[in-house]
Amino acid sequence: MNWVLRPNGYVMLNRLLKKFLIVLLVLLSANLGHTQEEQNGGNMDVFTNPLPYYSYKKGIGLTSPDSVFQMNFRFRMQNRLTLGQNNDGRTFVDGQIRRLRIRYDGYVGNPKFLYMLQLSFTPGDLGGAIHDGDNLKIIRDAVFFYRPNNQWNIGFGQTKLPGNRQRFNSSGALQLTDRSINNARFTIDRDFGVQANYLNQREERFSYNIKTAISMGEGRAYTDNDDAHLCYTGKIELYPLGRFEKGGEYFEGDQVRESKPKLLVSGAASYNDRAKLSSGQLGNPLYEKRDLTSYFGDLVLKYKGLALMTAYMQRSTKNPLTFSSDSIPLMSYVYAGTGMDYQASYLFRSNWELIGRYSWQQVASKISIYTPDLQQYSIGLTKYIWEHSFKLQLELTYNVLDYYDGSRRENWYTRFQVEMGI
Fold this sequence. Notes:
The chain is mainly beta. It has two domains: about 1-50; about 75-100 and about 160-420, Porin, CATH 2.40.160.10. The protein has five helices and 20 strands. The chain has helices spanning about 5-40, 45-50, 125, 165-170, 180-185, and strands spanning about 55, 60-65, 70-85, 90-110, 110-120, 140-145, 150-160, 190-200, 205-215, 230-240, 260-275, 285-305, 305-315, 320-325, 330-335, 335-345, 350-365, 375-385, 390-400, 410-420. It has a 16-stranded antiparallel β-barrel with strand order 3-4-5-6-7-8-9-10-11-12-13-16-17-18-19-20.
């Protein structure tokens, strides 16, 4: 029998072939889908759930699709080269990575439950071990915050105490390559404890913040706590002309070029009950515990690229000298005294900034035989490429040291620094 395929037969055959291919593809897809589901424990959510949300404003942000958690990642580094002359007249050259840090912050479960973690990695940033077996201080911040509303903020963990303004500003938000000599000696720095802050900032009306803390008093990553003596800190911040734009009180210089004058006046006090270190949360070990009282005052004024800052710092104790119980006693002392900083700058529209700072420091009379009074003069030139996150800094600093016997020594350094981060 001979089969003859007529023209309409081709049409029928094509239709049958198309239907067969469609059925075959459906069967294969179902089988592959079933196999894939088995390989993933029968859970297809990994393929069907939406992806996380990313943002690129301050660092790199990630938010889960259901908004259960949020994480923001940032890093920064400071590379510097210094040429200078020591007290004895010898010239030196030093190149180093001054700071290298990473930071994570965000919330878990609900935006009211916040966290912040910051780690440091360079030798000058770790705080070297004092004794064998002591911890290197890699952890700078590890703190949990509960924010029930826009006014209240309650923290638990290790972070900065509400002390002087320059310390509270990030080291990445400085105009010169480092903080002042008074901050280095008198600041109260980071500590582990509980903080409660009431924030009441308004656009162009009188505003204020109240910040308090009860902490261990031993500084960051200190693990030799053998008593129940604590540190108590309180601070009030006043904004007579309303709050700064974009949080301008937390970075030096007038980056936003305030369209109206903005003023911050603040005062803080801290009492460290039976401190173990010469500067409270920082410094060398004391042979005997001492009660330390610290006072801070700050004033910040910004307007159209001009920024003026002044700061007062003081630390006192009844007897700053401590002695060991050895047959030949050793001595260590609390760094007690008073200091003032004066700093002024102007940011040109080209994003070049000129900065000048003068600081003086007078030590307590009982330790003046061991350490000199100090004056520091600094002038700096900064080019902002991307605000404080990417900048080039050039600084010249001159120090005058006045000793107890009437002698005077001088030293200086010039420094170039590149700051980069996200």
